[in-house]
Amino acid sequence: MTVTLAQIVADLDAAYPPRLAQNWDSVGLVCGDPAAPVVRALVCVDVTPAVVARAVADGCELVVAHHPLLLRGVDSVATTTPKGALIHTLIRAGCALYTAHTNADSARPGVSDALADLLGLQRTVALQPIPSELDKWIVMVPVGAAESVRAALFAAGAGAIGDYRRCSWSVVGTGQFEPLPGASPTIGAVGILSEVAEARIEVVAPRGARAGLLAALRAAHPYEEPAFDVVELAGLPSGVGLGRVGELDKEMSLREFVAFARQRLPGAAWGIRAAGDPDRRLRRIAVCGGAGDSLIGAAAAAGADAFVTGDLRHHVVDEALRAGGPALIDAGHWATEFPWCAQAVGLLAALGVDAAAYPEPTDPFVLHA
C-alpha cells in the first residue's frame, strides 16, 4: 500500500519530536503536498545541488535532510537565489523536503546514538539531558463516566511514560458539593448537599498540552464545573538530549582509538585529528554528531576519557586540555552526522518507502594537502 507524505511526516515527527528542537531551529516539512503518495525517498545530511539532482533523477518524491536548507535570514525563494533554485527544482519534480535537525540530535535514537553505535559504545546516556517538563492532572469524575474521561485525556496527549501509553492511576472515593443558585447540576439539586462516588484519575502530560487537555476534559466531563488539579512536576533528567556517553568493550590508547574510529566512520577529506596524550588510556567515550565543542564541559563532567565530535576550534581545544579535560577527537561535521542517515532510511523502509542515503560526502571541504 502506498504511503502518503502526511503519514511519513507523522512518523518522522514521532521519531524526532519537533518539541526537542532548539528554539532557533527550523524543522519539519519545508515543501510538499501532504496528500501526495511517496514511493521513493533520499536521505542526506545537506541539501546540495548534487543531492537534489540525484533525488530528481531517481524519481524520489521526498528528501529527508538533517541540516535545514531554509534556516535564518531567508526572505526570498526566487530561482535567482541558490536556495530558491533548489526549492523550485524540488517542487517542479513533485519532490517534498523534510528536515530533522536539532530534534534528531536530541531524540533517542537520534544522531548521536547512530554515532555511538558505530563506535561500539555500550550503556549510553544523554550527555546533556533535556529535563522533563510534565504536569500531573488529577481529575475527580463520577465512577460511571471515568472511562470516557480517561479516554479523552489520553486522546489529548496524557498518559505517556517512556515506552508506555495510556498510563493512569485511580482510586474511588466520595465527593460532595452543594449547587448554588444559577447552577445547572448534572447530579443533585440547587441548595442540597450531595455525595457522589467519584473516581480520582491521575495522569501525566507534557506542559505544552495544557490547553488541549483542558478543552478535552471540559468536553468529556459530565459536570458543569469539573473538579481537577494540575500540578507542575519537577524537571528530572530524561533519556533524550544532546550527545551520548558510554563505554568501550575494552580499553584502548588514544592512538588506537583514533585508528579504530578512522576505520568505522565515513572519512572526511582530511581524516581524523585528535588532541591529547597519544598513550592515554580510554574506556569512557562521549560523542556528539556535528559541531559539539559546546559540550566539552559536559563530557568532562561525565567522566569521559575522550570526546568525539566535529568542528573543534584551536583555542577551545587548547583551553580544555589545559583544564585537564578529556582527549578531543575531531572526526568532521559531516562524518559524525552521516551515520544517522541509515537510521532514517530504516524508519522510512519500515513504512514501505524505497529509501536510500546519499552516499557522497557533502562536507564543503574536499581537498587535503
From TrEMBL:
Homohexamer. InterPro entries: DUF34/NIF3, DUF34/NIF3_bac, DUF34/NIF3_sf, N-reg_PII/ATP_PRibTrfase_C. Keywords: Metal-binding. This is GTP cyclohydrolase 1 type 2 homolog. Gene3D superfamilies: 3.30.70.120, NIF3 (NGG1p interacting factor 3)-like. Belongs to the GTP cyclohydrolase I type 2/NIF3 family. The lineage of its organism: Bacteria, Bacillati, Actinomycetota, Actinomycetes, Mycobacteriales. Signal peptide: none annotated.
